[in-house]
Amino acid sequence: MKLSVFWGYYILLFLCISCKKKEVKIRTEPVVQSFQVQLPDILKFNSHKILDTEITGMIAFRCLIPEKWAGQDKVEWDSTDQINPVRWSGIYLDSTRSMKIQIYPDQRSSYSISPKGLHGKKPPVHVLEGIKELIKKRRSDKVYEVVYEKAFDAPKPQNTEYISETSQIGIVRIEYEEKNQKIEEEFYGNLSTTELSSESYIQMHTMKWMFDELYSCKAPKGKLEFCRAMAFTLKSSEKRNLAFYNKVNNLLGRISELGFQNAIREEQSLHARESGSNDVTAQNSNESDFQNLEQQQMNNNSTFSKYLGGIDMYKDDDIDSAYFPAGYNLAWKSEPGDYILSRVNNFDPNGSASGNWKLMVKY
User: Fold this and answer.
1) Is residue 147 part of a domain?
2) If both were cysteines, with which of 28, 50, 237, 347 could 64 make a disulfide (CB 3.0 to 4.6 Å apart)?
3) With contact defined as beta carbons under 8 Å apart, do 323 and 232 qualify?
4) What confidence tens digit (pLDDT) does each residue in 140-184 have?
C-alpha cells in the first residue's frame, strides 16, 4: 500500500514537471535587417490625406502609403484631453492582405501628488510595459508569445532643478499562428514624461505624460523586415496640417470657455455653413510651436531609423528628410508629393509617369 502511494506521488510529480509551461527566451539584441523577400524593382509611395470628418472637415494629417495598399483611417476627438484632443488611427493592407500596418490612437494624461492625495492617471511604469498592455488589449483573440523586446532613450532637452523630462522608445515583437501560418508582429511606442516639482509651503508633484507614436506591422514569418521598413516610411512621413493645427488650438480656447460639447457643436455648425472652406484658415499664430513639434518628430525619426536598420534616408527639401526601405539605388519625388524608388540605375520616371519628377539625394 505504501509503495503504491509512493509511486502515485512520483508519477504526479513527473506529470507536473512535464506540463510546466516552456519559458520563452526574450531577445533584446538590436534588430537585424536581412530581407528574405524579393524586393520589387520599382516601389511607389503615394501621398495620402487623413481627414477630420467628425468636427472640422479639414485635412488633419498627411502621410505616404505604398501603392496598391488599401487603407481605412479616421480622426477622433478625445473629450478628456483639453491640450491635444485629436487622435489618428488606421489600418493599411497590401494587395494580398498578408501584410498589415496599424496606427493606434495616442494616450495622454497627467497626474499630481499633493497633501490631498493622488489625482489623475499614472503613465505606464515603462515603455515596454505600456506596449505589452496595448498588445494584450488589441490581440486578446490571439495565443501569442513575446519573442523580442528592446527600449532605448530618445533625445530630450536637458533637465532643470524643477523640471525633469524623459523619453523612451520601445519595440516588442510577438509570434502567433493564424490560418495555419506563423505570423510575426512588431509594436512600437514612445513614452514621454514631464515632471514638475515645487517646494513652497505645500509640496506639489505633477507629471504630464504622452504614450504616442503607437503603431505595429504584421507579416508572415520571414517577411517582417520588409513590412517593418514600409511601416516606418508610413509613420515617419506623418505630417500635421498647419491650418488644422491652428484650428484645433483656436477651438481649444473656445472649449475652455464654453465646455467641450458646446464648443464642438458650434464648430460643427460653422463647418456646415462654410462647406469645408476653412481648410485654408488660421495659417499664422501657432507656427513656432508647430515647427517645434515637427523638429521633435524629425529627431525621433532619425534616432529610430538608425536603430531599426534597413532604412535609407534621403534629403527632401520640403520635409527635411524622407525615409524609405533600403535596397534601392534611386529615389524620385513628384510635385504632388509622390515618390518612386528604383533598383535599376538608369531608371527615370519622367516621360513614363505623369508629373515632373526630381531625383533625390541619399544621405
Assistant:
1) yes
2) 237
3) yes
4) 999 999 999 999 887 666 666 678 888 899 999 999 999 999 999
Residue 283 lies in a domain: no
pLDDT confidence of residue 321: 86
Query: Position 263: which residue type?
Result: A
pLDDT, greater one: 249 or 190: 190
Distance CA 136, CA 171 (A): 15
SS3 281: coil
Range of the domain at 187: 109-215
Residue in 250, 143, 130, 257 with CA at minimum distance from that of residue 192: 130
**Cβ-contact 33, 42 below 8 angstroms:** no
- For residue 149, being part of any structural domain is answered with yes
Q: How confident is the model at residue 13 (pLDDT cuts 50, 70, 90)?
A: very low
Distance in Å from the first CA to the final CA of the chain: 80
Band the pLDDT of 16: cuts 50, 70, 90: very low
Residue 356 lies in a domain: no
The count of domains in the chain is 1
Least confident of 35-39, 63-67, 349-353, 357-361: 35-39
**Amino acid letter, residue 130:** G
Strands of the chain, DSSP E: 42-51, 59-66, 70-77, 86-93, 100-103, 107-114, 117-120, 145-153, 163-178, 181-199, 203-220, 239-240, 311-316, 320-325, 330-334, 339-342, 357-359, 361-362
Task: Say which residues have a Cβ less than 8 Å from residue 191's Cβ, sequence separation at least 6.
Answer: 123, 124, 126, 127, 130, 166, 167, 168, 170, 209, 210, 211
